[in-house]
Design goal:
Number of strands: 11
Bound molecules: calcium ion
CATH superfamily: Alpha/Beta hydrolase fold, catalytic domain
Strand order of the largest sheet: 1-2-4-3-5-6-7-8-11
CATH architecture: 3-Layer(aba) Sandwich
Radius of gyration: 17 Å
Oligomer: single chain
Strand content: 15-25%
Distance between the termini: 30 Å
Helix content: 25-40%
Length: 265
Amino acid sequence: MKSISNVINSFNQEGSGEEENNQFTLYQQSRDASFYLWGENGVFNSTQSVYVITHGWQNAGFTDNDFATLAQSIIQYDPNANIFFTDWTDLSSNYNYLESARDTAIVGQQLGEFLLGLDIDTDKTTLIGHSLGAHISGIAADTYDRLTGEVLNTVIGLDSAGLSFEDGLTDESGRLDATDANRVVELHSTSIFGYDDSMGDLDVYLNWNDTFQPGESSLMGNHYYPVDLLANLYQGASYTQEDGSVFELDDLFTLEGVYDINTTV
Ligand SMILES: [Ca+2]
Ligand SMILES: [Ca+2]
């Protein structure tokens, strides 16, 4: 078994370099995070859906092409949506993973307060977080609920971080769990980086017995795979299972429980 330090050392700076079609523009800053809004004019429309994407540890933040692609895919699906991005690279670029993991509480609180400052429709609000960003999303939704008594509609965790969160190391108030939103969906893609146990209303274990996720050739690629998969699902991709059923975006909003899903094509 790999030691935690080996696991931590195998994290890489992912997604460096700005994409020409990256349209995130700075919308508002809090103490430890910057909130970007997708679109050339950067105007928030409170009558439309809200999506907030939050990155994980050692990530390039709003310049990460994977998240720009995810935002573009959401726009394809929901053309009038407001898509925010939480950039907390000041804290997530800390080489000390455990400190960044602890800082999810601070950033989650600030994201919750940011949402409170917007006039959002909670029924149309979805928080999407990768790795440590999933726990930030859960804490933000929980914070919003605590401050307003209103529950956000959906949180989607993309291989939510396991290290220092699983095995009972962090209780539900400090991590993503099924109580954080009306619907909590977790897309599990690694055991080594991700949170192994089920944690949401729906837990999807992707290609769980395969060494590598589709198109990936590294553990870090496996860890980022759900970001790409969610983009593909928003673009209308579907994946036929051995039993003939088809896995597609709508399943994220309707299925309950634990599923093993094959997305190899
Ligand atoms: Ca929670
Ligand atoms: Ca794990």
